[in-house]
Automatic annotation (TrEMBL):
This is Glucose repressible protein Grg1. Residues 1-69 are annotated as: Disordered. InterPro entries: Glc-repressible_Grg1. Residues 9-24 have a biased composition (Polar residues). Residues 25-35, 48-69 have a biased composition (Basic and acidic residues). PANTHER family: GLUCOSE-REPRESSIBLE GENE PROTEIN-RELATED, REPRESSIBLE PROTEIN GRG1, PUTATIVE (AFU_ORTHOLOGUE AFUA_5G14210)-RELATED.
Length: 69
C-alpha cells in the first residue's frame, strides 16, 4: 500500500515539475521579447527563476518518492 502512495506522489511531483518547466520556458520567451515593456520583461525573468527553483524542487521530490517505491 505504501508503494502505491509513493507512486502517486512520484507522478504528482513529475507533473508539477513539467508544469514548472513549461512555465519557465514561457517566461524566458517573454523576458527575451524586445516588444514587451522593461517591467514585463523583468517580471518574467524573475518568474522564470522561481519556476526553475520549483522545477528543481519537484525533481528532487520525485526522485525521493521513486527511491521509496
Amino acid at each position: 500500500m505504501e508503494s502505491l502512495k509513493q507512486g502517486a506522489n512520484y507522478v504528482s511531483e513529475t507533473v508539477q515539475q513539467a508544469t514548472s518547466g513549461t512555465s519557465k520556458e514561457a517566461n524566458k520567451q517573454v523576458a527575451k521579447d524586445s516588444d514587451a515593456s522593461v517591467g514585463t520583461r523583468a517580471s518574467a525573468a524573475k518568474d522564470a527563476v522561481g519556476d526553475k527553483l520549483d522545477e528543481t524542487k519537484h525533481d528532487a521530490k520525485a526522485s525521493a518518492h521513486k527511491e521509496q517505491i
